[in-house]
Amino acid sequence: MRCPVCGQGRIMRSWFRMHKNCPECGALIEREPGFFLGSIYFNYGLTTLIVAIAFPLLLFNGIADSQTLLFTSLAFVLIFPLLFFPLARSLWLGHDQYWDPRTDIPERLP
């Protein structure tokens, strides 16, 4: 996952932590407090979409019974958002850069 401004710097420091600024161009990654709440929409939306499609598809085709699907879906909605977390933040950052491009990017950091 790279900076949406320069396309070079890595935005994630670890799986759940982000840099404050892009290591390459110095662009501020989190514009304001609560900025990444929007990434929850990407994470929740994809999780819900996958379960909403897979559950009835598997149930009505007789591939799995309802109890198995219920527990499998529960495990999926608990684990998948954690795995998708960095990508959801990256998508939100790219979405924000597309609709509201940064114009106040500082010079390269030393």
TrEMBL record:
Q: Which domain of life is it from?
A: Bacteria
Q: Which UniProt keywords apply?
A: Membrane, Transmembrane, Transmembrane helix
Ranges that cross the membrane: 41-63, 69-88
- What InterPro entries is this protein classified in? DUF983
What is the protein named?
Answer: DUF983 domain-containing protein
Q: Which organism is it from?
A: Blastopirellula sediminis
